[in-house]
Write a structure and sequence with these properties.
The structure holds 2 protein chains of 2 kinds. Chain A is an alpha+beta fold. Chain A folds into 2 domains: 31 residues; 103 residues, lipopolysaccharide transport protein A fold. Chain A contains 1 helix and 14 strands. In chain A, a hairpin with a 2-residue loop joins strand 10 and strand 11. By secondary structure, chain B is mostly beta strands. Chain B has 2 domains: 81 residues, no CATH class; 135 residues, Lipopolysaccharide (LPS) transport protein A like domain (lipopolysaccharide transport protein A fold, Sandwich). In chain B, 6% of the residues lie in helices and 66% in strands. Classes of the chains: A alpha+beta, B mainly beta. Strand 13 of chain A pairs antiparallel with strand 2 of chain B, so a sheet runs across the interface.
Chain lengths: 147, 251
């Protein structure tokens, strides 16, 4: 009877340790699967394949495409891998961009390249505001103009 | 070691080299593109390098025409330094220039513009249009210097001509409520207003006129100076008389 008590105690301790180990591994796995952009944590397993969005203003239509997309919340989508903003006038290339479909804005803190006719801008990120009328290139930025 | 340094310089020059016809702009705190308003806002430690000019400033607004690459006007502020391929060096708190109209406006204290042999200084305003040759300086202590003449006043207005890559002042109007000053190699002249014509070789002085040449001082209300033979005629209002002071120099 005493042996049984010892066995039971050992079993309980082992099970408890196992549960703690499983929980620890799960927690680590979750942390590995999350990435952070602009202070927003997002599950990296993607929600949308080849997402497509548009920003419309009076003068142009900007088509946004990427390889993957994750819903951050109801309005924000994290676009990843080969993110491209394309209009009749320009293209912007980036790795990761947060797009707000309600406000029609976009933000990236990753290296980005803007290309238009005779124009190339390289920056450490960008913001698209005012429905695409204003594009802010952030950080150390270079602009090359060729006639 | 020397070879290594030369190699590094050569490689860095090669890597950083700007192609002919290209304009290279760098900033520390980004660029904003305003598509509807058609301008770039360039922020902090701005450097612009092109075939035609080099500009350094803290903040620059660069307006483009139809296409993004076609810069037509630049408004810059904060320790501005501008050097053009035509020999213009401009410094000031604010420098605005138009690439199409070839005009430069410099505003603020310690404004200066050097255009080959013409030197301009002002504490307020300098404007030069290279297509028309017109220039204007405003503000107390504004100054214009060439090899032949030195002019100071609160307003200097005139034009220059360019022949064989040499700039020559053609006409100048200068005024100062205290006294404007025109100085040639031999004569020092003071008046409230003055006109200078290089073409006609004439300097006209109006009001509170004072002419100093060698050891003689002449005062009056109007003077007409022939800059070729340095002769002059001084007149005065009816109530006053022309005054001549001759200082005797001991030999």
């Amino acid at each position: 009877m005493q042996l049984n008590k010892k066995l039971l105690l050992t079993f309980i301790v082992l099970v408890t340790l196992l549960i703690i180990l499983i929980l620890y591994i799960q927690k680590n796995q979750i942390q590995k699967n999350t990435s952070s952009i602009n202070g927003v944590s997002v599950d990296s397993s993607y929600d949308i394949i080849k997402p497509k969005f548009t920003i419309n203003n009076e003068n142009e239509k900007i088509l946004i495409t990427a390889n993957e997309g994750n819903f951050v919340n109801n309005d924000q989508i994290l676009l990843k891998n080969n993110v491209l903003f394309k209009s009749d006038k320009f293209k912007i290339f980036s790795k990761e961009v947060i797009f707000n479909k309600k406000k029609q804005t976009a933000k990236s803190d990753k290296n980005s390249i803007f290309r238009a006719k005779g124009t190339e801008i390289k920056s450490e990120g960008f913001d698209i505001i005012d429905q695409g009328n204003i594009i802010q290139f952030n950080g150390k930025t270079s602009l090359t103009l060729s006639k | 070691m020397k070879i290594l340094i030369l190699l590094i310089i050569f490689i860095s020059n090669f890597v950083l080299a700007r192609d002919l016809g290209q304009t290279e702009i760098t900033t520390d705190e980004g660029i904003e593109v305003f598509q509807n308003e058609k301008y770039y806002l360039l922020k902090k430690n701005v450097s612009i390098l092109s075939d035609d000019f080099e500009l350094k400033a803290d903040l620059v607004k660069a307006y483009f025409d139809k296409d993004l690459y076609d810069i037509i006007n630049i408004e810059s502020e904060g320790s501005v330094f501008l050097k053009s391929s035509k020999g213009i060096i401009a410094k000031g708190q604010k420098v605005n220039f138009s690439t199409k109209e070839e005009s430069i406006l410099i505003l603020g204290k310690k404004s200066s513009l050097v255009f080959n042999d013409i030197f301009m200084f002002s504490e307020n305003f300098i404007f030069v249009n290279n297509l028309t040759g017109k220039f204007k300086l405003e503000g107390k202590g504004s100054e214009l210097k060439t090899n032949d003449i030195q002019i100071s006043g609160s307003l200097i207005d005139g034009n220059y001509i360019t022949a064989n890559k040499i700039n020559e002042v053609e006409m100048i109007y200068v005024e100062d409520s205290n006294q404007a000053n025109i100085k040639t190699n031999k004569i020092n002249m003071f008046a409230i207003k003055a006109n200078y014509s290089k073409k006609e070789n004439i300097i006209e002085l109006f009001d509170n006129v004072k002419i100093i040449r060698d050891n003689e001082i002449i005062t009056g209300d109007y003077a007409n100076i022939d800059t070729l033979n340095e002769s002059y005629k001084v007149t005065t209002n009816k109530s006053k008389k022309v005054k001549v002071l001759i200082n005797k120099i001991d030999e």
